[in-house]
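From the pipeline queue, job 12 of 40. The input is one protein chain; the requested action is below.

Action: predict structure.
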Amino acid sequence: MPTSRSTRDKLLDAAARLFAERGVDNVSLAEIVRAAGQRNASAVHYHLGNREDVPRELLARHVPEIADRRLELLDKASAQPAADVRSAAEAIVRPITEFAQRGWRERCYLQIGSELTNALDRTTPEIRELLTHTAGYTAWDLLRDRCPAVPDDLWFERREICIAFIGRAAGDRARKLDQRGSHPVLTDDRFVDNLVDMVIGAMTAPVTVRSPSR
């Protein structure tokens, strides 16, 4: 049914824009319906399911693309010596930077995915399961195995900051490329190399040890 698919895509596109602009928890189903140009107030329920199903459907249409590219890079990284930190970090960064350049839908996905990743305790089990399918956690585990030891609490804090930072940096660069304005933009490889350098720097930074107060 082409009409049904078209309506579904319009609803997902409207939800993607609104969620990316205002946050997943700050958008109502009625707003999605209006933004999609639909008259039927129950359009979201009919085409996508419940309120909790909408972000899951948004993730589901992009996760396989990111996962395929990341698994390809992870295969290459796994074949490198155990001390090779760079290939592990590139498996984290490059799928995101490449994905962000495809279009506004992909950039919205990155913003939404980053928000949900940083609030896993408030997401559904289905969303948490989907997020693991990007192979992102596998890549981060490989990086951790190859980095100097960092306490668990600091490692996870640094990781969450880097996840948000990577998505934001990739999205901002893609928007600059779209605008083709006067802002200087690094070449693809130079941008990725620099972002990988920054992630490695953040994850391997020395840990400050404070002396106990007297």
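Job complete. The mean pLDDT is 89.
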